[in-house]
Amino acid sequence: MYELNALEAKSLFQKGKKMTEMLIDKIEPVTTAGLQQTPGIETYVPAGGQPVLHCENIEKVYGSRGNITRALDGISFNVNKGEYVAIMGASGSGKTTLLNCISSIDRVTSGHIYVAGRDITNLRSKQLSQFRRDDLGFIFQDSNILDTLTAYENIALALTIKKVPHREIEMRVAAVAEHLSITDTLKKFPYQLSGGQKQRVAAARAIITNPSLVLADEPTGALDSKSAKMLLESFDMLNKNLLATILMVTHDSFAASYTKRVIFIQDGKIFTELVRGDQSRKEFFNRIIEVVSFLGGENNDVL
Ligand code: ADP
User: Fold this and answer.
1) CATH code assigned at 171
2) Domain assignment of residue 56, yes or no
3) CA–CA separation, 225 vs 254, rounded Å?
4) SS3 of 272, please?
5) Would residue 126 count as lying in a domain?
6) More confident site: 300 or 61
7) Which residue has the CA at smallest separation from atom 7 of ligand 1?
8) Confidence (pTM)
């Protein structure tokens, strides 16, 4: 791999920052007119705007006959562009099922899920893998970065596969790495990184392709509190500076307090939602704790 000296890295970062801004400028609201529609795929365009994610009365039923589990029972909500939203709920409430359906790993029994205006519940397997590659970024509890690649190579992989020019990849990786404070770790292999650094590499990998939606599944679950705080601050930065739209499933009230809105689910239904508004993170945390306590959870554990 070509090695950058400090000056080159700095100049690349400046260029990368500009490019990121240009890319953000280029993102246009999706309209029906602008969409390449595949026959059979419906397009949802609500009045007054385009949510990145629109879940419409989704149901997921497992099992058959006498042994049915209604994991999702008529869930509807939107996530708008640039939002940062948490999904909370007790164990067994349907969080994983919901995330799996949105990420198209699992299929809904009924209802529709629209991502960037496209109904993903109707997609066939080839279109699904394209959708996951182009529209989604994933961050899991375990970073899932590849052990045999350096941090740089892990972050760059999706762009390399897409045959993005080498120079552009370097600029984009440098820019995202700077935002996530992992520039110093780019040449290292995963075994040389801390858990928190690995998660920030995973966040960089998720965001590098400019996905419509970043899905995070308990991203702080395996981190100590200091690393968790750093990762949550990184997410906040990705949301504010790079306008990433993030949907995070978490049981942790502290993690949820970094988001702008928390949707609580119970027994496969939306129980309530809290919007942060102008409140400080701490005030929002206290309100989250109240709902968690009302639902019968331990503040740091059950939800
Ligand atoms: P959470 O992530 O909030 O803990 P899940 O989405 O994993 O909840 O589960 C919701 C409900 O669906 C639970 O009652 C669970 O037992 C059930 N469930 C999840 N996956 C399956 C499956 N593959 N087969 C049968 N039941 C399932």
Assistant:
1) 3.40.50.300
2) no
3) 10
4) strand
5) no
6) 61
7) 96
8) 0.82
